[in-house]
Design a protein that fits this description.
The protein is α/β, with parallel strands linked by helices and 123 residues long. It is built from seven helices and four strands, in the order βααβααβααβα. Helix content is 53%, strand content 12%. The chain has a four-stranded parallel sheet, sandwiched between helices. The longest helix has 12 residues. The two termini are 19 Å apart.
Length: 123
Amino acid sequence: MNYLIDTHVLLWYMVGDRRIGLDVQSKIENTENTIFISNASLWEISIKMSIGKLKLNGSMADLKNYLSEKGLLILEFDFDDLQLLQELPFHHQDPFDRMIVAQAKSKSLQILTNDSLVLMYFN
């Protein structure tokens, strides 16, 4: 199965936060699954680190290495994603989450999130 993980799921996974849930953790760790992280999530993390809203143990280079070690693939957005983003209803105002939704829908990926507003796009 192919999954796109939301930013908070990545952050929870990295620190072993129990809010991630065993089901989601096992999906991420199952080597038969392909796990993507949106470059929109990386952009969000970088911005939040730079303004002091997020503290990570390490730099963005360390995060890049972590993603590579865990086998998580970075998903770049493209014009198909942008077209779908433009057409999405405004259930969610967060631009990063909206891009993640557009990518998941455009690429037919299952999304792993605890955000009820994000999940509205898939019901």
